[in-house]
Amino acid sequence: MKVEDNNALRFILQDEIYLLDEDKSSFGSTPDPRLETQTQQPEFNYLGSNKKSFLILVNYDTHEFMQDDHLLALESVLGRLGHTREDVAIFNLAKHNTDRDQVVAYFSPKTLVILGRNAMPDGIDVKLNSIEQVNGIKTLLTFGFDEMMTNVENKKAFWEQMKNL
Questions:
Q1: Which of these, 1, 28, 48, 164, has the minimum number of CB atoms within 10 Å of its CB?
Q2: Residue 28: Cβ within 10 Å count
Q3: DSSP-derived 3-state class of residue 150
Q4: What whole-number distance in Å separates Cα of residue 152 and Cα of residue 148?
């Protein structure tokens, strides 16, 4: 018996039919969509809109994003550089269990500012207050605002590097 429509075989034969790998291409079978696995993208809660692919990493255990006076100071610096909160993404690493690769994949930053060594994700090794290219991303590790609010020299060093971004 010759069957011209492969789909009709399931009505004629009640037993399961298994194809060898070399025969699968000749029948044009489509893969079962239930078998496809998809990696779920993590959802991150961050401040800003990331319109200019400018990521700022912070680490505040007791705040959702940043301490209010630190956020005000950061927005002041960004304003002097011609940026608004909408241009950047402020991401608090203390509130997320993630690694560098997930953060970079999610935000796709062109510029990355790390405010304090405790905000530096694993896998990044940059010098303090030195702008470096890390995997094509302009990266700056600088002081956290706790270190800057009480030290004028740290503020100056931060400002000098921010102007060069």
A1: 1
A2: 7
A3: coil
A4: 7
What residues pair up with 56 in beta bridges, in sequence order? Answer: 90, 113
**Can you tell me whether residue 20 is helix, strand or coil?**
coil
| Cα separation, 148 vs 160, whole angstroms | 13
The domains found in the chain, sorted by start residue, are 6-35 (no CATH), 47-163 (3.40.470.10)
**Starting at the edge strand that comes first in sequence, how are the strands of the sheet with 54-58 ordered?**
47-48, 88-92, 54-58, 111-115, 137-142, 131-134
- Nearest-Å Rg of the Cα atoms of the chain is 26
Q: In this predicted model, what pLDDT tens digit does every residue of 123-148 receive, in sequence order?
A: 788 999 999 999 999 999 999 999 99
Residue indicated by tokens 């094509």: 136
Rounded Cα distance between 37 and 9, Å, is 29
- SS3 at position 85: helix
Dist. CA 89–CA 109, nearest whole Å: 9
Q: Closest Cα to residue 114, out of 156, 66, 58?
A: 58
